[in-house]
Amino acid sequence: MSDKIKPLGDRVLIKALEREEKTKSGIVLPDTAKEKPQEGKVIAVGSGKTLDNGTKVPLEVKAGQKVIFSKYAGTEVKLDGEELMILNERDILAIVE
């Protein structure tokens, strides 16, 4: 799949990980009550950020890593029926180890 979309520059392609569909007390949440996912798996990364002096800085995140990202960040895209997100590396808050 990542061979069909190649993020440019400092952008990252992420597959959002779905949140639990039930609360801790066992109540099933309808789709409208679910929050937008903030955790995802990195599928592909761009070549890096280009600084003003022309130096290319590689991204800190790598394909396969699990990350936490800003709630309203990114652009949602659909590929082969799968929902993915393209976001800037600066919108990634942390890498989950």
Structure overview:
The chain has 97 residues and is mainly β. It has a single domain, classed as Roll (10 Kd Chaperonin, Protein Cpn10, Chain O). Helix content is 0%, strand content 39%. It has no helices and 8 strands. The strands form 2 sheets. Strands 6-7-1-2-5-8 form a 6-stranded antiparallel sheet, with no helix packed on it. It has a two-stranded antiparallel ribbon with strand order 3-4. The mean pLDDT is 86.
CATH first level: Mainly Beta
In spatial order, strands of the major sheet run 6-7-1-2-5-8
> What is the residue-averaged pLDDT?
86
Unreliable runs: none
Total domains: 1
Tell me the radius of gyration. Answer: 15 Å
Annotated CATH topology:
10 Kd Chaperonin, Protein Cpn10, Chain O
Overall strand count: 8
- Give me the secondary-structure category: mainly beta
Shape: elongated
The share of residues in extended strands comes to 35-45%
Largest sheet: 6 strands, antiparallel
How large is the count of helical segments? 0
CATH architecture classification name: Roll
CATH superfamily: GroES chaperonin
